[in-house]
Amino acid sequence: MLRAGGNAVDAAVAAAFTAFVAEPLLASAGGAGMMTIALTDRDPVVVDFFSTMPGLGARPTDLDFRAVTIDFGPTTQSFHVGPGSVAPPVALPGLIEATKRFGTLPLSELIVPAVTHARKGLCLSAENAQVYRLLWGIQQLSDEAVALAGGVMPTTASELRNPALADLLEEMARLGTTPPRFERALLDGFGPRSGGMVTAEDMARAAPRLGPPRAIEIDDWTVLASPHVGGSRVSRLLRALFSTDPHSDEAAEAARVAGACRAASVRGKPGGRGSTTHISVIDALDGAASVTLTNGEGCGFVVEGTGVQPNNFLGEDDLNPEGFHTHLPGVVLPTMIAPTIALRNGRPEMALGSGGSNRIRSVVSQVLYRVIRGDELEHAVMAPRVHAEGDDVWIENVEWSDFDAVERALAVDFERVNPFPKRAFYFGGVHAVRTDGRGHAEAVGDPRRGGAIAHVY
To answer: How far does CA 283 lie from the centroid of its chain?
Structure first.
């Protein structure tokens, strides 16, 4: 899209559509997300297309809401899925809105990579094959979800095809809006008559919201963060990090980061794994787009005739801290996703974001902190991560010159120090791009979550 003359938004939207094919359990037309945009000739904006709580106008008499226990090896975790776990999907309206308002290329061009891969087939990455292995118990809830995966649990040798999704995207491009048949099929399969919560009134209100990002001023930098709760905690974390001595030793720095994480936390237990896709783009004019997509773990069922597996947002602990189905209908669900852009002297210089459930705010803040204080982007992304909630702290045991001293420093303030022996999926994947404003750009795809980069010349 960049070679075709498109801008950062065009590239991010095309990549998002393609993620529906390449990472179908992490990103989906049945999910949601958020995009932060800073173009050189426009005020910065957030296109917020996260889902709302359904249930307007009607409720099911028999809610189809099931727990599936997933074996992660050292531990197990229960996810709640089924039609009763689905919130109104806003991914398609959100990406369409971003394109119409801020892109330069037509939707018919932006869908080409996704449609091509969906028809010809696309091999899974090792990371996505692992996701399928972990979440296969959810896929086995319906024959349609298994068929969408090719009939058996996919591996890196599997070529996934999704011609129904290709048809849906082509119809969307022709209409310039979400095809009405998608909504009809969603209501048939996931509405109150089918044990779900989604109503026609919910879908009528399932529209993206545009507004200014949360702006955080630090020296000559301005960090543009999500206006959601995640953005406020990024702000608190950054201010806590920059309020202390930047030249302290490793142990003191780890303790400071952990303390800042705990101060910005909302509850005392770790969140889930965080099933998300993040894309960061900077174009030749230094326009920036940062978009995070999520589908939870998927609900285990498919919207008939579309090749789309909807989200299970209503069954995710992180999004429902007071209990399942307790949000008021129509209220925007909470989210920690934090697609972020950093301006320097008013010019977009960096775009970044991450998956990782409630670790998102802490890992994005740590990368920002390191870059703003002068670290190279690659070192900032690869540096050992720290996260704290309540009396627990989690830390990567990599690159510390004296990890015993780091553990002792953390043990002063935390009851439990939980080390990871290497860089871990748990801490999310900060995928970031940066430009110096003189034609040179760098990018880092975080290996913790299978990050990849592309330079376009």
So the answer is: 21
